[in-house]
Amino acid sequence: MSVSTSQSNALTPIEREYVLLTQNGLPIVARPYHWIAEQLKISVEQVYELTEKFLENGIVRRIAAVPNHYKLGYTYNGMTVWDIADEHATTFGDAVGKLPFVSHCYLRPRKLPSWNFNLFAMVHGKSPDEIEQQRSQIKKLLTDVLVERFHDDEQKTLFKPYDMLTSTQILKKTGLRLKRNSTEKA
Amino acid sequence: MIEASAKTKIDEQTDRKRTHEVVELTPLDKGLINLLQHGLPVCERPFEVIANELNSTEEEVITHLNQLLESKVLSRFGPMFDAACLGGAFTLAALAVPDERFEAVTAQVNSFEQIAHNYRRTHQYNMWFVIATESQQEIYQVIEEIENMTGLEVLNAPKLEEFYVGLYLPV
């Protein structure tokens, strides 16, 4: 996926109803898809069809349980950032994304001279040591493609090719929700 | 469109010790957490399928899952929508905020309803937030307004390519 925006009118009215109904979660009952069918007043076959379509086109990533990091002891996270050669970005971004402890992995634009990093990989662990080890594992993988870059001709100082930003405080956290009252586009 | 609604949990998890109540989980709970992070099958009795994999019963699985939700070990169960696919525009942005102004700038940035998440991080760029809006144009507007309000330059880092999204926390 290469763009950060897409249009909401890609959803049909019934798909939109499906999203509105389930975005806060599914009830844990024996036949959850039947529950959706009853609520939307459509057949369960239609629910299966819609669900498979959502899963195929990526609108739904998974129908899954989302654990609370903190309750499971995963209280540390690190946003690791890397300056890697553009021509290797996709290959190596894929490889980093496949590491089991990486939850998000994105390519983002650099903004020189203040920000030279283009690859972001989020890691999670139960201790500072653990996320430090995860960072070194990513570093090992990226060693050959890290960029050696100077601030400018006069200073001759090197940019760091990588860093890890750990979060020290949650300042705001809200859920992203599709608005019920937003106007439908045909 | 997408809105960043719901509760603002300012500082709720600031104190690690307060929220660091790691709970006791039964082997079935652990199995469920591990298995269901990967996803629920799409079929008539999906929890029966899960129960079979864990040598349990559908009824027991349903009971345990509801308990895990109630005790907030699971923050959610259901379809995980890709917010970008549902319309709207998103970006990750950052500010380098002088320490003495941190609190004031936090209030300024958080006052925008388009700010979905905001984290303090260890770096010269010490404030990182997600801007979620209806259109790309609105992203630029919010950035400009934040810059005018704070006098600080926003680092705008939209995603160019996504390699993986999905957190698996084994227990």
Give keywords.
heterodimer, A: 186 residues, alpha+beta, B: 171 residues, 4-stranded antiparallel sheet, 7 strands, 24% strand
User: Largest sheet of chain B, described in full?
Assistant: 4 strands, antiparallel
> What overall geometry of chain B do the principal axes of the alpha carbons give?
elongated
Poorly predicted regions of chain A:
1-9, 182-186
Helix content of chain B: 25-40%
Number of strands of chain A: 7
Structural class of chain A: alpha+beta
Major sheet attributes of chain A: 4 strands, antiparallel
Helical stretch tally of chain A: 5
Name the poorly predicted regions of chain B. 4-18
Order of helices and strands of chain B: EHHHHEEHEEHEE
Chain pair with largest interface: A-B, 87 and 99 residues
Strand segment count of chain B: 7
Structure description:
- The complex is a heterodimer of chains A (186) and B (171).
- With 186 residues, chain A is an alpha+beta fold.
- Chain A is built from 5 helices and 7 strands.
- In chain A, α2 (32-40) packs across α3.
- In chain A, 31% of the residues lie in helices and 24% in strands.
- Chain B has 6 helices and 7 strands; from the N terminus they run βααααββαββαββ.
- A 4-stranded antiparallel β-sheet of chain B has the order 4-5-3-6.
- The radius of gyration of chain B is 20 Å and the shape is elongated.
- Mean pLDDT of chain B is 87; it is low at 4-18.
- The interface between A and B is large, with 87 and 99 residues.
- β2 of chain A pairs antiparallel with β2 (74-81) of chain B.
